[in-house]
Design brief:
Blueprint (H helix, E strand, L loop, with lengths): L2 E8 L3 E8 L4 E5 L5 H10 L3 E5 L5 H4 L2 H8 L2 E5 L11 E3 L4 E4 L2 E7 L8 E5 L4 E5 L2 E2 L2 E2 L7 H12 L6 E4 L4 H11 L4 H15 L7 E2 H7 L8 H13 L1
Parallel strand pairs: 3-4, 4-5, 5-6, 10-13
Antiparallel strand pairs: 1-2, 2-3, 7-8, 8-9, 9-10, 11-12, 13-14
Helix pairs in contact: 4-8, 5-6
The structure holds zinc ion.
The site of zinc ion has 5 residues, from loops.
Length: 241
Amino acid sequence: MALDIVRIPVLSDNYVWLVHEATSGETMVVDPAVAGPVLAEAELRGWTITQIWNTHWHPDHTGGNAEIKAATGCTITGPAAEAGRIPTLDVQVKEGDAVRLGLVEAQVIDVPAHTAGHIAYHFATEHAAFVGDTLFAMGCGRLFEGTAEQMYLNMRKLEALGDDTAIYCAHEYTLSNGRFALTVESGNLPLIERVNEVTAMRERGEATVPTTIALERATNPFMRAASVEELAKRRAAKDAA
Ligand SMILES: [Zn+2]
């Protein structure tokens, strides 16, 4: 792997990802909710932040943009469709665009639904994707600005990245998602096993992400929904839970 990826837990359940490409020395932050802990982690490692990549406009993904940019002079890349809601944006991207971190390139994928212009970043050569609030361990993002049909299509796009793709999501929602997933598929053995495992991990205070596409295909009720209608029903039930 050409990238060092560091998880920074902030706020109540957010994960900010610090990504370093050693050959070039470039360091990028995915979705900085806040600035302080991110700048501190980079400094601890002797890394200088050169870029921020945003997946969507929500404040718990962009709140640290301005302060990190002021401290480092970094370039901020994010969804073209949400440029109006991310005033700190320097570079606007959409599906089909590539974004470079030193020697490594990521492809931009449009995954609207949680927000209207939500994007994900896929490092194909690294088998890694940063998906913001679209796909979680055993869950998916709420449909604030989009439809179940869009989320269903997002699940198809993300599962097509391949089983060995590591999925870096932006929240520790795993246990709550797992408990809900069990109400949907009580007889799914890999799911039962995973919920037991993540329950123990959380009791030890451990993080449960990144996940992988293989794990999600086996245990995620939204990725496993057989139709748009089924996904919509499950999302509504989770929202009400
Ligand atoms: Zn969000």
